[in-house]
Structure formats: structure tokens, C-alpha cells
Amino acid sequence: MNDAxxxxxxxxxxxxxxxxxxxxxxxxxxxxxNYKIVPAVNNISFNVKQGEMVGYIGENGAGKSTTIKMLTGxxxxxxxxxxxxxxxxHKDREKFVSTIGVVFGQRSQLWWDIxxxxxxxxxxxxxxxxxEQYDSHMGHVIKTLDIEPLLDKPxxxxxxGQRMRCELAAALIHNPPLLFLDEPTIGxxxxxxxKIREFLKEINEKYNTTILLTTHDxxxxxxxxERVVMLDEGKIIYDGALKSLKEKWGEGKxxxxxxxxxxxxxxxxxITASSEVKWEKDEKEAIFTAFTExxxxxxSLLIAKVVADLKVKDINIKETSTEEIIRNIYDRGxx
Length: 335
Description:
The chain is α/β, with parallel strands linked by helices. It contains twelve helices and 13 strands. The chain has helices at residues 22-31, 64-71, 93-97, 116-126, 131-144, 160-171, 190-207, 218-224, 242-249, 265-271, 296-309, 322-332; strands at residues 3-18, 34-49, 53-58, 79-84, 100-104, 178-182, 210-214, 227-232, 235-241, 253-259, 278-282, 287-292, 312-319. The chain has a six-stranded mixed sheet, with helices on both faces. Strands 11-12-10-13 form a four-stranded antiparallel sheet, with helices on one face. Strands 2-1-4 form a three-stranded antiparallel sheet. A hairpin with a 2-residue loop joins strand 8 (227-232) and strand 9 (235-241). The two termini are 31 Å apart.
């Protein structure tokens, strides 16, 4: 299987200018500026195979967007090598852009005052897509994303959810083999998110479309990606299966109890005194949560002790969420 993206020792540095104090300092700044070099992306390497869906994650300022801008040819690297779809994104610009689709959650590629379908027609001309190619491919895209009723509306009249579905369709007019998605579901309601996720899975299966997804919504990553690349301060701190990340750093299980009688934390601490368990209570929902290690025997014993002493209405066993795991990694570092 060929690589859609190859990144080797990639670096991007920016100059951060500082101002001198006082009037004299301001005059000196007019002649010479003090600056320091800040690495936004610091010597990273990774590959993405054709047909893979990869989550590219990190906190604000970790270097995610800078990487995407270099991979799409918007920014030129300070050093290192980038090959995307067999091309250098900065040198083979015109040929390269016809092989990628890009959706930035905060920026639009649709024209604000004209109808959505007019934007689609303009993009069709830009990408030199034939009528036959457009009809066979876009018919499916428009139907699946349920945007047919929106085609005659100007973009400014659309809600955020409607616009994002149209943005996604616009990025796929030329049926690119590689799709870059930067926060594609930001600010969207649950139903629109689900529709977009289902659609992305479908085009990945149907056309083997490679997808690189950056997002703060980890439920998007869990729904779509088997592999994650995690960035911190411009460096990759994890590159591997999401499943392995959860197995290795998922600290224990959470067991939620609801009771048919009045129960206090003291009661539960007394009942489970001999077990390694920490209890918390959600006052609003009247849910008691036991935090314990991920060991089937210990969990069974804990549940048996509680059920033997108290009348239980409901039990729910939850794994540590991906969000919590990743927050712990950023707080304590990976090892």
C-alpha cells in the first residue's frame, strides 16, 4: 500500500518579535527589532497510508494547524521533507491542489452571496471536472449529506450545520484521494455531527479516500479513526492505535450505581472498606460512582458487596474516556 503522506524531520520556525520599553526603545525598534526563533513544529516524522483515517490531535498551540498548512502547501517548511500524493505541496502547487480536499471549520470556500450550487459550478470549473464526472459523483454526495434543499440558497442564509455540510460537499467536487479536515464539526449539533461522520466513513469505504482529521472533539476521533498522532509543543508524543492508547493509559473503570433507598458515601465506604476503591456522588443525578482498577475479579467482588447490602436500581460500568486519558497524558507526560 502506498503512502498518501510522508513527513520527514519537518520543522517550522517563526520569528517572535519583542518591543523595547519606553520612547527611546520605540525609536530603536523602528531601526532594529529584537526577536527570538520559536519552533511551532519541531522535527516531526510520520507516514499516512492510502485509505487510512488518522486523527491528528493536540492542545491549542501544539502545532496541528501549522502542520496541516505545510501539508496543504499554504506554508513552506523551515526544513525537512513533505511528500503528499507523490508531490511536493509547495513546488507542484497547481497539480497538487487538484488531488486534495480541505475543510477548515472556521473558513469558507463557498461564495457568501451566491447560491450554493453556483459555488459548486465555479469550483467544478476551477478543478476542470467534466459534467459526467460531476453528475456521477456529486449526485451521491448531495443525497447523502442531505443538502439538495439548500442548493438554491445563498451561503449567508445557511445555519452553521447546513454550511458545514455544503463545505464538505464543495471539498469533494473533484473527488480527491486525500481529505484534510480541520475541526469539521466545531459548534455543530449532535445529529449533524452523526450525519457528517457517517458520510466520511462511507466515502472512505467507497473511494478509499485518505482522511487526516484534526479536532478537539474526541468523539469524532473515536467514531472515525483507528490511529492517532498526538502532538505536544511541536513534537509527536504518540503515534499508534487509539485502542493501544486506551489499553495502556486507561486507568481503571468507573462503576455507576443508582439505589432504591437513601445511601450515603459513608455507607459505601464502610461496605467496600477492604477494596481499593474511591467513591464520588453526583448530587444532582443521585448517582454514586466507584473508581477502581481495570480488573474483572475486583469489579465483580465490588458489585457483589454493594448488591448484598443495598437495594440497587441500576449499574453502569464505564471505561475511562479517551478525553480523560489524553488530558492525563498532557498533565503528566507520556512514558
